[in-house]
């Protein structure tokens, strides 16, 4: 898996172990909620891939994309992105949310496509310190609200 390659270089943590990702994708695909696009080399190896979630009303969301670092000079990532756009358009999708638009080279690539850079949501890993702080603050806020109305004993 391409995310494993990024992990092996020390650049990224593993999103999900292979078996859990396979189960996750299988459930999404079975429900008609996702497509996995690949650009493959002539020997069958994946050079680039992207996971697209399929939403209602012609909306789609590219939530994960990766490439084999040895083949970045082949242009497989932008080619795959464009081919995915064409396939999604043929299937009736009119928008695609390109997540992670603030990642340096990714920002430059995405800015060439036009559109507006808008933050719709932020997703954090469960072991993220920022997420743990946020959840702790939410629990404290809830307890304070309960105390204010006499709901906590």
What does this structure look like?
There is one protein chain. The chain has 153 residues and is of the alpha+beta class. 41% of the residues lie in helices and 19% in strands. The longest helix has 20 residues, at 129-148.
Overall SS class: alpha+beta
Q: What count of helical segments does DSSP give? A: 5
Q: How would the global form be characterised?
A: elongated
Beta-strand content: 15-25%
Low-confidence stretches: 1-7
Determine the mean pLDDT: 80
Counting DSSP E segments of at least 2 residues, the number of strands comes to 4
Helicity range: 40-55%
Strand order of the largest sheet: 1-2-3-4
* Rg calc: 19 Å
Helix and strand succession?
HHEEEHEHH
Distance between the termini: 51 Å
Fold topology:
Blueprint lengths: L1 H7 L9 H13 L3 E7 L5 E9 L4 E9 L8 H15 L4 E4 L6 H7 L17 H20 L5
Parallel strand pairs: 3-4
Antiparallel strand pairs: 1-2, 2-3
From the structure above, extract its key features.
single chain, 153 residues, alpha+beta, 5 helices
Describe this structure in a few short sentences:
The chain is an alpha+beta fold and 153 residues long.
């Amino acid at each position: 898996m391409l995310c494993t390659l990024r992990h092996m270089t020390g650049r990224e943590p593993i999103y999900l172990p292979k078996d859990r990702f396979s189960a996750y994708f299988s459930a999404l695909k079975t429900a008609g909620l996702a497509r996995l696009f690949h650009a493959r080399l002539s020997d069958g190896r994946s050079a680039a891939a992207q996971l697209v979630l399929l939403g209602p009303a012609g909306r789609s969301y590219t939530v994960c994309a990766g490439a084999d670092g040895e083949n970045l000079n082949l242009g497989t990532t932008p080619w795959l992105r464009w081919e995915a756009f064409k396939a999604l358009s043929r299937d009736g999708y009119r928008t695609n949310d390109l997540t992670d638009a603030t990642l340096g080279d990714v920002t430059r690539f995405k800015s060439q496509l036009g559109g507006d850079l808008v933050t719709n949501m932020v997703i954090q890993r469960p072991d993220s310190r920022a997420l743990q702080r946020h959840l702790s603050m939410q629990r404290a806020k809830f307890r304070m609200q309960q105390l204010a109305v006499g709901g906590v004993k």
